[in-house]
Design a protein that fits this description.
Distance between the termini: 19 Å
Order of helices and strands: HHHEEHEEHEHEHEEEEHEEH
Radius of gyration: 19 Å
Bound molecules: ligand MTE, molybdenum atom
Largest sheet: 7 strands, mixed
CATH superfamily: Oxidoreductase, molybdopterin-binding domain
Shape: globular
Mean pLDDT: 89
Number of domains: 1
Length: 322
């Protein structure tokens, strides 16, 4: 989408804002008061009986905990996490759970293709029989400055990568979410040509043990608003990298396009590694609000995962934090 590439260097800040606002509005990406990724990130106290009703119906999963991943804070309350989610296919508000009834997450086929020796098209249920599941407690930090700490269930992405045997020419992995205008109200309403949501990693990032394909949360299958039936979790990167409801994974020999980079290129790049010292163009990234509590904390470099992923990047090169 070349039309998004505005010559920002030639515009004043105010002109940039006005132009982009008009553009996003034309694309249906600004509601009455909603600016994507800039919703206030105050603590969300809403507890709803309706919401809890949807959570108790989820299928239980049994997966042993991988104790290598320990938290420095309490787990976020399950209902608080489920009530405050980002899933722009359904709504720009956080109350995604109210809008997902029509979204069908079974049966669900996942296609793995591109530069691999053994391409694979498989239903999620079959995939779960092939790869053992485990539970991991991870921190999760949204670029909007809210954060959570949650027990994902799933498997390391590397297990899937090994199965399809990437060719030596493969350097990157592209992830693609669903396109179903009849099930996702915002895909129908907005004329954004950037759907389906898409994201990417380098192959080295994908092979890193932290990269996780989640199929469950809090001991049961993923609630729809968290990206059922299968999503990526890359906890050292801002939350938008952790693409939900993936239908296709493509191995490539170049850096894949990403949804938010295409949407707002001067604010979101490919890497999106968490670094509290580098502010977003419009706000500080130094601190975060813990979902479901009044607590604020200093954000950690790589969200606290430097031991695992610090070696993949050069801290002095700012490109890795955009
Ligand atoms: N397909 C899809 N994946 C997505 C998004 C989205 O809008 N669509 N939002 C992203 C953003 S901005 C964040 S912060 C996380 C939120 O994950 P959670 O809602 O499960 O906490 O999902 C990411 N994955
Ligand atoms: Mo986010």
């Amino acid at each position: 989408m070349q039309s998004y590439k505005l010559p920002t260097s030639e515009l004043t800040a105010e002109e940039v804002f006005r132009t982009r606002r008009t553009l996003l509005k034309a694309l249906g990406f600004l509601g009455l008061n909603a600016w994507p990724l800039l919703n206030a990130c105050t603590n969300y106290a809403a507890q709803s009986r309706d919401l809890n009703g949807t959570l108790v119906n989820l299928k239980q999963l049994h997966a042993p905990r991988n104790g290598s991943y320990r938290l420095d804070r309490p787990l976020t309350d399950q209902a608080e996490a489920a009530a405050y989610t980002n899933f722009y296919e359904f709504t720009h508000s956080k109350e995604v759970w109210r809008r997902v009834d029509r979204f069908l997450t079974r049966p669900w086929e996942l296609k793995i293709t591109g530069l691999v020796k053994k391409p694979l098209t498989i239903s999620v249920d079959e995939l779960l029989k092939l790869i053992p599941q485990e539970e991991r407690h991870y921190r999760f930090r949204c670029v909007e400055t809210w954060s959570m700490a949650v027990p994902w269930i799933g498997f390391p992405l590397s297990a899937l990568i090994k199965r399809v045997e990437p060719l030596s020419s493969a350097t990157h992995i592209s992830f693609i979410s669903f396109l179903r205008r009849d099930q996702a109200p915002e895909q129908k309403r907005s004329s954004v040509e950037l759907w389906p949501y898409h994201e990417g990693l380098t192959l080295a990032e994908g092979m890193n043990d932290l990269s996780f394909m989640a199929t469950g949360l809090y001991g049961h299958e993923l609630a729809k608003q968290h990206g059922a039936p299968i999503r990526l979790v890359a906890p050292w990167k801002y939350g938008f990298k952790s693409i939900k409801s993936v239908v296709e994974i493509v191995f490539t020999d170049r850096q894949p396009a990403t949804f938010w980079n295409a949407m707002i290129p001067n604010e979101y790049g490919f890497w999106a590694n968490i670094n509290p010292a580098i502010p977003h163009p419009r706000w500080s990234q130094a601190e975060e609000s813990l979902l479901g509590s009044n607590e604020r904390r200093k954000t950690l470099l790589y969200n606290g995962y430097t031991d695992q992923v610090g070696g993949l990047y050069n801290l002095k090169d700012r490109q890795y934090f955009y």
